Amino acid sequence: DIGDADTLVRLATEAGLDTSEVLSELTYGSRIAAVEEDVRKAASLGLNSVPTFVLDMRWAVPGAQPTEVFTRALEQAWAASHPGTSSFLSVDGAQDAEACGPKGC
Q: Which of 5, 35, 70, 83 has the fewest CB atoms within 10 Å, i.e. the most exposed one?
């Protein structure tokens, strides 16, 4: 019963959340305004599925998608926000442009 505070506290604690923070949120609702703003923003963008991944506040990938869909979406978002540059990844995953990696530049 997600309407039962004791159940919510138990589940949240089992998931690793701090019990006192959960109790405080249930009592005072300090995050409600932020959640409501997120819901308004999603509605203003026309989002109506969960999950939906928003890229650069301009593109959305709705629902669970294969890796290839995310790759294409990221490449398109990168190209649109960086006109005149090569894509950050080629089809085979090789670096096209200068980039820093885990071992440095």
A: 83
Q: CA–CA distance from 74 to each of 5, 22, 99, 105 (Å)?
A: 40, 35, 16, 22
Annotate 46-79 with DSSP letters as a single string: T--SSSEEEETTTEEEESS--HHHHHHHHHHHHH
Question: d(Cα 61, Cα 77) in Å, to the nearest integer?
Answer: 11
CA distances from 56 to 59, 60, 97, 103 (A): 7, 9, 20, 27
Extract the tokens encoding 45: 């963008």
pLDDT in tens, 14-44: 999 999 999 999 999 999 999 999 989 888 8
Q: Report how far residue 64's alpha carbon sits from residue 52's, in angstroms, rounded to the nearest whole number.
A: 8
52: exposed, middle or buried (Cβ count in 10 Å: 0-12, 13-18, 19+)? middle
